[in-house]
From TrEMBL:
InterPro entries: MEMO1_fam. NCBIfam families: AmmeMemoSam_B (TIGR04336). This is Protein MEMO1. PANTHER family: PROTEIN MEMO1. It holds the Pfam family Memo. Belongs to the MEMO1 family. It comes from Haplochromis burtoni (Burton's mouthbrooder).
Amino acid sequence: MDILLGVKQTKIGGLGTKMSNRVVCREASHAGSWYSASGSQLNAQLEGWLSQAQSTIRPARAIIAPHAGYTYCGACAAHAYKQVDPSITRRVFILGPSHHVPLSRCALSPADIYRTPLYDLRIDQKVYADLWKTGLFERMSLQTDEDEHSIEMHLPYTAKAMESHKDEFSIVPVLVGALSESKEQEYGKLLSKYLADPSNLFIISSDFCHWGQRFRYTYYDESQGEIYRSIEHLDKMGMGIIEQLDPMSFTNYLKKYRNTICGRHPIGVLLNAVAELRKSGLEMNFTFLNYAQSSQCRNWQDSSVPLVKHPKRLFR
């Protein structure tokens, strides 16, 4: 992959800018723990999972996929990535929630390159510059970027899905904060023009229900039977609402059930982007292809580590 050495403008500590021609690389900080650090082993794992998934509604223009460790979610995430068409995709937006730092807006990476055990991914600095000019984005530190897993967990799968055109695409990572409804609308409207472009792919990073006392969430509908079936019922209720592509209905669902969907704000941004495009008559649909849980909760001492759902999203 070509690396262009040039003059780049970077925000420092929230104040001022600096001019630098140094290429900044974000290391694959979760490799070796959340997924294999061995390129050959990781490649074999991804190929195995993808071989078990069906390409049913390709090409996808956006997908929702999980960010748990690959032991938990690798097989399920393959159902989403199987729908990606590398022959038409030239830019991959990755929207992930912030787990470690308080953030009320969205943030851009200070890096130029994201490393993976497969090959390096290049950030689209032209799109970054355009987003930065809006004044709506913060600049996260490299430490914050490397601590966060919600974006990184999609990098190996992105690299694998795009490997046949690996020198022909760039990525646009966006860390999404705890946005208000109005902010979700604002970012959705801003990103809608990119979503309208068939050469862009949007990856929305989200697990669904985090259940258990350690997550301070123990919603249980006894009429559904075992706890894990109650969780599945709750999640699939939310999934059905997402498939309606109505941001307000999704917001109301979250307010009513408080489901601990960690990527609710990236999902909200996507739904608002879709709503904006629908105003111009663009027809689209969304279908979830797979659902899985990291473990089956049967008593109050159990917990379901980010219940992994691995849906897929499509535009026509």
